[in-house]
Amino acid sequence: MTGKLDIQPDPAALARHVADWLLDRAMAKAGKTAIALSGGSTPKALFALLATPDYARRMPWERLELWWGDERFVPHDHPESNYGMTRAALLDHVPIPAGNVHPIPTGGTPEEAAQGYERALRQAYGAEALDPSRPLFDVTFLGLGEDGHTASLIPGQPVLNERTKWVAAVGQGRPEVRITLTYPALESSAVVAFLIAGAGKAQILAQVRDGGADVPAARLRPQGELIWFVDRAAAGG
Ligand code: 6PG
Fold first, then answer.
1. pLDDT at 2
2. What CA–CA distances, in Å, run from 27 to 20, 30, 48, 68, 73?
3. Span 37-58, pLDDT tens digits
4. What CATH number does the domain containing 50 carry?
């Protein structure tokens, strides 16, 4: 995988750099900016920064549509919930209209949740099939696990072969059931932005970027731009 490697000195600088980048993009676009957020721990610093007055008062929240790339199938107030983490770090502190925030549902069965989210995405997109010239998202943020997973595209799971559905339930491979966007949905983005920090990611990042690892993140074929927002430690520096 190629893409642009954008290295910042440390996690705080990385969060500031990505916050500025996102702010610029959102302000430059007259209409809605559809963003798929990643979960886990890395985005917390970015979300906390966007919640500070300096960013919160400049971001055009009413023009953002927030979606999630994946979710743990737990209640939204559960400590493992990606939506819950984003709510606490960001959404509770900024004036984004509730109708602009689209959490992955975690009621009913995992299959029902995945189907429900796919319906919501298709409705927002306004078509049943993804058109390469009209991406589903403006920005898709992704993290990278040390086993090479991204979103909940987990090594060895059937979801890696799913090329029709936009959202799928992943019943194995993690302590909790996951709901994840599939490759077609994640790849349908004007920009895919990996956000990666820490020395623990240096080896997998190098393997993924030089094509030396057949892991889920390395199979991603973004239709648009690919940017690796990393700190120096993750870049091996
Ligand atoms: C999740 C994420 C997952 C994450 C990576 C990196 O739900 O856990 O979507 O794909 O991005 O595991 O996680 P960290 O940022 O915690 O290292």
1. 85
2. 10, 7, 19, 21, 33
3. 999 999 999 999 999 999 999 9
4. 3.40.50.1360
What is the Cβ-side half-sphere exposure of residue 156, based on CA atoms within 13 angstroms?
5
Domain limits at 226?
Answer: 4-174+189-194+203-231
Contact in structure between 181 and 151 (CB atoms under 8 Å) = yes
Which atom from ligand 1 is nearest to the alpha carbon of 72? Answer: 7
Name which residue sits closest to atom 11 of ligand 1, judged by CA. Answer: 143
Ligand 1 pocket check for 40: Cβ under 6 Å: yes
Model confidence pTM above 0.85: yes
Cβ–ligand 1 distance for 172 under 6 Å, the answer: no
> Distance from the CA of 43 to the center of ligand 1, in angstroms?
9
Is 181 a domain residue? no
The contacts of residue 106 (CB under 8 Å, 6+ apart) are: 71, 72, 73, 74, 75, 76, 81, 113, 179
Per the structure, the count of domains in the chain is: 1
Give pLDDT tens digits for 184-194: 999 999 999 99
Atom of ligand 1 nearest to the CA of 196: 15
What's the token pair of residue 105? 């549902």
User: Does some domain include residue 15?
Assistant: yes
Residue 166 is assigned to a structural domain of this protein: yes
* 156, part of any domain: yes
Query: How many whole angstroms separate alpha carbon 9 and alpha carbon 129?
Result: 41
